[in-house]
Specification:
This protein is α/β, with parallel strands linked by helices. The chain contains 14 helices and twelve strands. The protein has two domains: about 5-215, inorganic pyrophosphatase (n-terminal core) (Alpha-Beta Complex), CATH 3.90.1640; about 220-354, Diaminopimelate Epimerase, Chain A, domain 1 (Roll). The chain has helices at about 5-10, 20-25, 40-55, 70-75, 115, 150-160, 165-180, 190-200, 205-215, 220-230, 245-250, 305-310, 330-340, 350-354; strands at about 30-35, 60-65, 80-85, 95-100, 125, 140, 230-235, 240-245, 275-280, 285-290, 315, 320-325. The strands form two sheets. The protein has a six-stranded parallel sheet with strand order 3-2-1-4-5-6. A six-stranded mixed sheet has the order 7-8-9-10-12-11, with helices on both faces.
Amino acid sequence: MTESASASASTYASTTDWPGLATRLRAAESAVLMAHRKPDGDAIGSLAAAWHLLAPIIPQREVWIVGPADQALLDLVPEVPIIHVDGGPPTALDPDVVLVLDTGAWSQLEPFEPWLRGRHDRVLGIDHHARGDDVAAHRVVQASAASTTRMLLDLADELGTPLSRELAEPLFLGLATDTGWFRHSNADADAFRAAARLLEAGVRKDRLYQLVEETHRPTRLTIAARALSSLRFVRRGEVAIQCLAPADFEQTGSGPEDTVGLVNMPMIVGDVRVSIMATEREPGVTKLSFRGKPGQGPWVDADVNEVAGLYGGGGHRFAAGARVDGTLDETLVRLAADLEARPSLRAPEASSAG
């Protein structure tokens, strides 16, 4: 792990609380809302929820997103005027506050880094990831929260905002997608209590599930077939690795939105404790997605957040990612060496027994 990554892991924590954050928001008249590159359900849900949540107190608001976003997610929030950003800041707005949601990592905010650094004391952060940088001077970080939208529910309570369906649905979107529709280990009692509140506010969960999970293009299946054809198991079957090269996207007509969730497919195999997807779509840059399983029986927890930290990335204990400067082949060679150096995921008694 690099020195900067280690420092981020040890110092990334809350610098304020909900009352402190609410006070700064109430004092603002303009705001820019942003999330991480290639926003997922939690990021889009957080941006949309914050847009509605702040409407009564901040009259001028802009939402900026970077990188491709699943059109199905965007279609769920058509009322939110999202600005797609290719380079630096897209408007001349110099906001009173900048609200950074669902990330605290410079690597996921690259186009905005100089702009954000120049406004550091105005940057507010709400994040549930365990790793991050000093992006937001005033931030609430809760790694135990199931999603960033779950945290925004607390902010809504602090601001005294009633839970309308308009607000509850994007909050539920982030909570549901980040817990794998309540299948993952982060779907704890608190997450279910929050879900119950949102359902009582009128969330139509069946509609959300269909619009998010059952609207893929046929290319989703063709690129999934390519990924599975590359599948190999290493470390006595503990680790599954899939990869996608630029030619796979060119030949199938697929886009990055078609790869969402493909890293989870090998997790149905009992002995697989870690699944890794390595994707090179942008020449010379490889994206790594990691998934891990909690310890069961002869296995210990597969903490993929720690592994992602080796590549300057991060995320959660059982779901993390990183962007690596290097081709797919170069990254796979490095990955193989790093995996070989990792300890076994079998519990000590299981290892000795074997």
